[in-house]
Design a protein that fits this description.
CATH architecture of one domain: 7 Propeller
Structural class: mainly beta
Shape: globular
Oligomer: single chain
Pfam families: FG-GAP_3
Mean pLDDT: 85
Distance between the termini: 75 Å
Low-confidence stretches: 438-443, 573-588
Keywords: Signal
Strand content: over 45%
Length: 1265
């Protein structure tokens, strides 16, 4: 068997003629023409001479070229078929008109079509006939087969652009039906398609490689040419899949799936079971940096086992992988403690209470421990060392809460000092000084007899003992397992590594540099199954076991005594041990929840259904007679498992919208309605990792006439609240880098060339210059100009204004390195005169400047902050671009002033000054007299330890007075001071900016055009920016975070409309990446960041409802806590809710599953109804109007009824509220009729049918009666 490859880089096809069982090869090359860019290739006999020919799709030349074969590996007389304006990207063959001649089909990526060339028996072809695949479909790949078993070939198409596959059914005459579409999910970008019978039902199934989201999708054939919804198998979000093919790799007569992952230089295999499902992924590492691009499966060496040929893009190689097999292995990542550390023990815990596991090892400097914090995605956030005493040489470590303060402490066994050392934790990653006290075995029940056994690693005899326990604390029989000659087993640990509920034993072989695992059989027998080599001379010593990423897969952390490293071992691609992925096996919709509303504004009730099994929401349009006409399906994406659905007008456009809770993906989806029965594509909002949300309710929690979302998170024991608002959104950052210009510190916006477009000026402190980015008015910058501030100047800040009154913008720069202010006078065409300098004093290190007329002489002056001399300097202008000698005002010893801003804080039409005193943790206000003099500095504290870096001003509460906001770098917060209008400010109010955010800069603007000022924050620590949206009353809502890229270290930002669309855009200076980043504003959405409220450990909240339980006019939240058998109440507090949850019992082991709120006894107080799943009843808590309730009254719903949901309405038209209960256990609906005083009577039960199991209930008038 031979191989032919299309090589677009050299415009040739390359033929590899294999012989000697694929151990040798001859290579032949054939040109396809200059700039032909051959993209795909297929082999067939096109001229009926019993010799194989080659057809090539030439993307660059708009043609197909056919090379006719002699049958001896050589080719002649190439024939060219024009594809017109289309660029063929993929080619395949088949007999589409049943004339026993091979026809050609191509995918035309640029013209959104496929084309058929029907063949004659002499190697010639008819003119192409094209079939449209959909606007922007961009087809990338084709597969040919008979999907509906009518003996006519059909075509399956991977539509990269529209995220779907299309099926064209053949009519046997070379024509095809219109396309049948199957979604591959949003942003999936299917790039390759293949077919095979995966479940041995004699029907062709389909598999696609989804480039955009790193998975493969399988569509199983229903035996009639229709297919199941896509079943996905994840490779990884960091994967970029290029190609998929099928074959039987492991000789089990079941087709396997082979995927090429170019981004990770890997080949992945999903072994098939033959029933339509696949085993855990197996991975083959190709040469690093090779960028594999395609693969073919065949038996190349005639050993009756399939092999794989791989094409590599970067290294231009064809790799033949012969005799593939699957074996367990582990990926190892090493972290240096210290080259001479000789670490022997390791422990794992969360030392700083951030929910991320940390690692502590011994061996640092011989007498200490080293803590590595926050292991995530293969990295640690920080490291810290603690002494365990001079010459202590700690040999073993354990971690526990020794003093019952809910903080993890560390205990060390110190060989050198014959002591035990205790480091008590503070819970934030810090520990007390060590306290010492004078002074490898594992135990577990290995044979399931409820007695503890012991396992011992014997270093001297190179074996392992298992000692079986007897009731009296002694041990009976002993079982010995050899660990191999010279293995020197040292450390042992016990865990269930293969999830079979039997304990296994892991051990380090010190001398052989191995970590091994013995799998337990549950009867005391063990078998050595896993052996991992961790590096020559590494000498693994101690280890610990944990699941760092909550993927149900245990990682092993091992100390490498020989080289001073700590290694983390993660097992991969072994079916018994690799990451387990759940695959959808059934095809039932599994309708979990429904809601009613009028979606098309025809005054008839429609319904929406959450189909958890097929990951859709289903819209049924009502006809007004209890029947439904149209069924519309909206995909929610595979694996999301929509569990609960509700409807409301989220965006106040008088059209009903749909909110879906997706328990599988820890998210909610919002589909905004058009009012005609159709909806926009869903927007997803995260409810938190592992949250498993299960219900949602709407309410106006802050009385702003916008609906908010409240979600019950069963998995994380909390509720998630999304406050509704008009949140502006931005495109992802577009970075601009001026080559050779390093350290952009601050950016400002102005029109420097008088073209009415916004430009940007930037100081580059590393390369001592300013740069001008000239805007083109469409959101990009085309010209960059560079001006030196002189060697060693270290420009740190700048501002722009017209200094010399020539109607042209000038640039003023604070040069920290040369102790001066530099002036660049603008020419109005984007160019500037050379820099003039004005000294600020020896050692002054100016770091911030502002411009205004401080002495009312009609000329602009400059104020500068001198960080080196702790003072403020004034340069009074002459109006011609020159300035008088600097005048100095002291700010206070060691105040460390870092920024200056100006404004009229007391409404006297005179310019005042605000100074940011970083070390003093305050803002200093100097009120101007209008003659160049100022009052004594008045201090406003931002609180101890905040270290503010910047200040900005605006009217945040619409009282026409100037307010103040600071960026508090060390406190991860911003502080708001509301102005009094007389130069003074009110008490500080603080808003967090997120853990580790370290905000450096704030600015003010109206980003959502609601005439209320918002605050934008630069988070240096997390490489992000975020807008806090103002409500116009001095309070703010946190918007979405936008990344400035890893390591960018954003410092400052500026605001402008760079594309003239009426929306504010943002430009950020990123010294860490030597870029400026542009974020263009483009849209808005109703929700942004989530606020969480704890409901108690183990509470498992299942349902939420809204009511006003204390009659204060503010909405409160009621929660059904299934796990803790209670109802929780969070009382509303304007823009927030109380910190403490009130608790009311629903009964012992009641299992409250659903909660609803209404006034059941007409006393104008909110009452609560709870469906108790476990105790088969509903509980009613009548409210007193002061957030307290009468004891619960229960009504039985029937033995084993398991009530799942309730609805409250007046069902018998007596103007009294009644209750309907959905009983999932007995498949009934139970009606309880109200008496108007909070009690109920006359139960009626309606049988739904066998095994209906109702999970949700909604109330509406379906037949308009």
């Amino acid at each position: 068997m031979d191989v032919v490859v299309a090589t677009s880089g050299i415009d040739k096809i390359v033929i590899f003629l294999l012989y000697n069982n694929a151990t040798s090869t001859r290579v032949k090359l054939y040109s396809t023409g200059a700039q032909s860019l051959p993209s795909s290739i297929v082999v067939d006999d096109f001229n009926n001479d019993n010799c194989l020919d080659i057809a090539v799709a030439n993307y660059g030349a708009h043609n197909i070229e056919i090379f006719f074969g002699y049958g001896n590996g050589t080719f002649f007389n190439s024939k060219v078929l024009s594809t017109g304006s289309s660029r063929p990207l993929f080619i395949n063959v088949g007999d589409f008109n049943n004339d026993n001649q091979s026809d050609i089909i191509i995918a035309n990526y640029d013209t959104d079509s496929v084309s058929i060339f029907l063949g004659y028996d002499n190697g010639s072809f008819q003119n192409q006939k094209s079939y449209f695949t959909g606007y922007d479909s961009s087809p990338r790949s084709l597969a040919v087969g008979d999907f509906n078993k009518d003996n006519h070939l059909d075509i399956a198409i991977a539509n990269y652009g529209t995220n779907n596959i299309g099926i064209l059914f053949g009519y046997s005459n070379g024509s095809f039906s219109s396309s049948q579409i199957y979604t591959t999910n949003q942003n999936s970008n299917p790039i390759s398609i293949a077919i095979g019978d995966f479940n041995n039902d004699n029907n062709l199934d389909i598999v696609v490689a989804n480039y955009g989201i790193g998975n493969v999708g399988v569509f199983l054939n229903y035996n009639n040419g229709t297919f199941t919804p896509q079943i996905t198998y994840s490779i990884g979000t960091n994967s970029r899949l290029q190609h998929v093919t099928v074959g039987d790799i492991n000789n089990d007569n079941a087709l396997d799936i082979i995927i090429v992952d170019s981004n990770n230089d890997q080949i992945h295999v999903f072994p098939g079971y033959g029933n339509g499902t696949f085993a855990t992924i197996s991975t083959y590492d190709v040469v690093s940096g090779s960028r594999p691009f395609a693969a073919v499966v065949a038996d190349f060496n005639n050993d009756n086992q399939s092999d794989i040929v791989v094409i590599t893009h970067e290294t231009n190689q064809l790799l033949l992988l012969v005799g593939c097999s699957i074996r367990p292995s582990a990926r190892q990542r090493n972290y240096l403690v210290k080259p001479s550390a000789h670490s022997s023990t390791v422990a794992i815990a969360d030392f700083n209470n951030d929910t991320q596991l940390d690692i502590v090892v011994n061996g640092y400097e011989g007498s200490g421990v080293r803590i590595m914090f926050d292991y995530n995605n293969g990295t640690f956030a920080k490291e810290m060392s603690y002494s365990t005493g001079n010459n202590s040489y700690p040999q073993h470590i354990c971690v526990s809460d020794l003093n019952n303060d809910n903080r993890i402490d560390i205990v060390t066994a110190n060989l050198g000092s014959d002591s035990v050392g205790v480091l008590l934790g503070y819970g934030d990653g810090n520990f007390t000084t060590v306290t010492t006290y004078s002074a490898g075995v594992g135990s577990a029940d290995f044979n399931s007899d409820n007695r503890l056994d012991i396992v011992v690693a014997n270093s001297r005899t190179n074996n392992m003992w298992v000692l079986f326990g007897i009731d009296n604390g002694t041990f009976g029989r002993q079982r010995t397992y050899s660990t191999g000659s010279e293995s020197l087993p040292y450390f042992v640990a016990v865990a269930d590594f293969n999830h079979d509920n039997q304990l296994d034993i892991a051990m380090t072989y010190f001398r052989n540099d191995k970590v091994v695992i013995f799998f337990g059989h549950g009867n005391g027998d063990f078998e050595l199954v896993r052996t991992y080599f961790v590096g020559t001379g590494s000498h693994p010593y101690g280890f610990a076991i944990a699941d760092f990423n909550n993927d149900k897969q245990l990682e092993i952390v091992v100390t490498l005594w020989g080289n001073g490293y700590v290694a983390i071992l993660t097992e991969y691609y072994a079916a018994d041990f690799a990451k387990q992925i759940m695959y959808f096996m059934g095809y039932a919709p599994q309708s979990y929840s429904l809601a009613a509303g009028d979606f098309n504004r025809d005054n008839r009730s429609d319904i929406v259904i959450a189909n958890s099994g097929i990951n859709t929401i289903e819209i049924r349009i009502g006809l007004g007679n209890s029947t439904f006409d149209t069924q519309i399906m909206y995909s929610i994406s595979t694996g999301l498992f929509p569990r609960y659905v509700n409807t409301a007008d989220i965006d106040n456009d008088n059209n009903l919208d749909i909110v879906t809770v997706n328990s599988g993906s820890d998210s909610v989806s919002v589909n905004l309605g058009y009012g005609n029965g159709s909806f926009k594509v869903s927007t997803m909002y995260s409810t938190g990792v592992g949250s498993h949300p299960c219900s949602v309710v709407f309410g106006d929690l802050n009385n702003d006439n916008r609906l908010d979302l409240i979600i019950a998170n069963e998995g994380t024991d909390n509720i998630a609240v999304f406050i509704g608002y008009n949140y502006s959104t931005f495109h992802n950052q577009k970075a601009y880098k001026a080559i050779g210009n390093l350290g952009p510190r601050e950016a400002v916006v102005g029109d420097f060339n008088n073209d009415s477009y916004s430009d940007v000026a930037v100081v580059f402190y590393t390369t001592n210059n300013i740069g001008i980015f000239l805007g083109d008015g469409n959101g990009s910058f085309n010209v960059f100009l560079n001006y030196s501030t002189t060697i060693g100047s270290t420009p740190y800040s700048l501002v722009v204004d017209d200094i010399n009154k020539d109607d042209r913008l000038d640039v003023i720069v604070a040069n920290s390195g040369t102790d001066n202010v530099g002036i660049f006078l603008g020419y109005g065409n984007g160019n500037f005169a050379g820099m003039m300098t004005f000294p600020t004093g020896i050692g002054s290190r100016p770091c911030s400047v502002a411009v205004a007329d401080f002495n009312d002489d009609g000329r602009l002056d400059i104020v500068v902050i001198n960080i080196g001399t702790n003072n403020i300097g004034f340069l009074y202008g002459y109006g011609n671009g020159s300035f008088a000698t600097i005048l100095i005002y002291q700010t206070g010893d060691n105040y460390f002033p870092t920024a200056v801003r100006i404004g009229d804080f007391n409404n006297d039409n005179r310019i005042d000054i605000a100074v940011v005193n970083t070390n003093a943790n305050n803002i200093g206000i100097l009120l101007g007299y209008g003659n160049g003099n100022f009052t004594k500095q008045v201090i406003y504290s931002t609180r101890h330890g905040t270290r503010p870096y910047w200040v900005a001003f605006g009217d945040f509460n619409n009282d026409y007075e100037i307010d103040m906001v600071t960026a508090n770098h060390h406190d991860n917060s911003i502080s708001i001071f509301l102005g009094q209008g007389n130069g003074s400010f009110g008490d500080v109010k603080t808003y967090p900016t997120g853990d580790g955010s370290m905000p450096m800069y704030v600015n003010v603007g109206d980003f959502n055009n609601d005439h209320k000022l918002d605050i934008i924050v630069v988070n240096y620590g997390t490489n992000q920016i975020v807008v806090h949206f103002g409500l116009g009353d001095g309070t703010f809502l946190w918007g979405d975070l936008y990344s400035t890229d890893i390591g960018s270290q954003p410092n400052t930002l500026a605001i402008g409309d760079f594309n003239k669309d009426g929306r504010l855009d943002i430009v950020v200076s990123n010294p860490g990446s030597d870029t400026i980043g542009l974020f263009l504003g483009y849209d808005s959405k109703p929700f942004a960041n989530v606020k969480l409220g704890r409901t108690g450990n183990g509470s498992r909240p299942h349902s939420v409802a809204i009511g006003d339980f204390n009659n204060d006019g503010i909405s409160d939240i009621a929660i059904a806590n299934y796990g803790n058998n209670n109802v929780g109440i969070y009382l509303g507090l304007d823009n927030a809710f109380s910190d403490n949850m009130l608790i009311y019992s629903t009964g012992v082991d009641s299992g409250p599953y659903f909660v609803a709120v209404e006034d059941l006894n007409n006393d104008n107080h909110s009452d609560i109804v709870v469906a108790n799943f476990k105790s088969d009843n509903i509980a009613i808590l009548l409210g007193y109007g002061n957030a307290t309730f009468a004891p619960a009254v229960t009504y039985l719903t029937g033995d084993r009824s398991h009530p799942f949901a309730v609805a409250i309405a007046d069902f018998d038209n007596d103007n009294v509220l009644d209750i309907a209960v959905a009983n999932s256990g007995t498949s009934t609906v139970l009606l309880l009729y109200g008496n108007g005083n909070g009690s109920f009577r006359n139960e009626e039960s309606y049988q739904l049918g066998y095994d209906y199991r109702p999970y949700s209930i909604a109330v509406t008038d379906l037949n308009q009666d």
